[in-house]
Amino acid sequence: MAHGASETIDLPAEKRDSAMGGCPVRWRRSTRARRVSLRIDARAGEVVVTLPPRANRRAGVALLTTHAAWVMERLAALSPHVALVPGAEVPLGGVPHVIRWTPGTDGTARLEPGAIVVGGEAEESPRRVAEFLRAEARRRMEVLSAGHAALLGVKPKALRLKDTRSRWGSCAPDGTLAFSWRLVMAPDWVLDYVVAHEVAHLRELNHSSRFWAHVARLTPHRDAAVEWLRLNGPALLRVG
Ligand SMILES: [Zn+2]
Q1: Where in the chain are the domains?
Q2: Could you tell me the distance, in angstroms and rounded to a whole number, from the CA of residue 186 to the centre of ligand 1?
Q3: If we measure between CA atoms, which residue out of 82, 107, 167, 182 comes closest to residue 137?
Q4: What does the alpha-carbon distance between residue 110 and residue 220 come to, in Å, rounded to a whole number?
Q5: Listed residue (151, 140, 147, 191) closest to 168, CA to CA
Q6: Which is the most buried residue in 48, 80, 92, 227, by most CB within 10 A?
Q7: Distance of CA 192 from the midpoint of ligand 1 (Å)
Q8: How far apart are CA 44 and CA 137, in angstroms?
Q9: What is the pTM of this model?
Q10: What are the tens digits of pLDDT across the range 3-24?
Q11: 127 C-alpha to center of ligand 1: Å?
């Protein structure tokens, strides 16, 4: 087994689940792991099996088999991969936008109603659209964080864009806020909540009731946004 190797294995069908089939698996060896574990990598669309040093692959297959229904259900729920190519549709602020390629124009991507228009070479489109989305994410996050920070009388040290898989935002002890650029695809009120959450950490670097009181002052969208991200977050990881 190669380190980090991906493959598709067949899980045995279970009585209650007829939709079983090939299961994309990535094997991972970890010296720190104490036991065999499974997790879904939403972005790769596969299940990651982590094996501690002395566990063999059979132990991984056994665990996969035990949890076959759960694994396949989770994988099936993942959205298909969306490449940032002309003709594809990506959400921006929760609104679908089609990527439109206009040959013979300047390559820089720009926004039109319902469309992200990109020129230059067609094969450069994915990179240019990705750059556009990141720039747009930064622009929107800076506006939101400035507003929230002013209300709480704080000032972020810096704002960084990341491509994280498990956290949408973070606040470092030095006051640097970091966000997944992918949030720009979520509805505005979801982005508003995540930014409000991290800005509130500039006052309280914990999740105490005082922290949540600050969040509540900044945004009314906490519960809905958390639920939206739980349901739709994995799909955002499948874009680009
Ligand atoms: Zn937090």
Answers
A1: 6-76, 89-236
A2: 19
A3: 182
A4: 31
A5: 191
A6: 92
A7: 14
A8: 22
A9: 0.74
A10: 455 665 555 443 222 223 457 7
A11: 31
Distance 203 CA to ligand 1 centre (A): 11
> Ligand 1 centroid vs 26 CA: distance in angstroms?
30
Structure-block tokens of residue 18: 């007829």
Three-class SS state of 166: coil
* Residues 22-43: tens digit of each pLDDT: 577 889 999 999 999 999 988 7
Burial letters 50-67, b for 16+ CB under 10 A, else e: bbeeebeeeebbebbeee
Q: Which residues contact 2 (CB under 8 A, 6 or more apart)?
A: 27
- What CATH number belongs to 89-236? 3.30.2010.10
Where helices occur in 77-221 by DSSP H, the ranges are: 125-152, 188-200, 209-218
In the reported structure, the alpha carbon of residue 187 is separated from the centroid of ligand 1 by a whole-number distance in angstroms of 20
Whole-number Å distance, alpha carbon 77 to ligand 1 midpoint, is 27
Residue 203's contacts (CB-CB under 8 Å, 6 or more residues apart) are: 152, 154, 210, 211, 214
> What is the C-alpha to C-alpha distance for residues 25 and 40, in angstroms, rounded to an integer?
9
Q: How far is the CA of 24 from the centre of ligand 1 (A)?
A: 32
Written in H, E and C, the secondary structure of 138-161 is: HHHHHHHHHHHHHHHCCCCCEEEE
**What distance in angstroms lies between residue 161's CA and the mean position of ligand 1's atoms?**
17
pLDDT digits (tens, 9 = 90+) for 205-222: 999 999 999 999 999 999
- Distance, in Å, from the CA atom of 120 to the CA atom of 118, rounded to the nearest integer, reads 7
Three-state DSSP at 89 gives strand
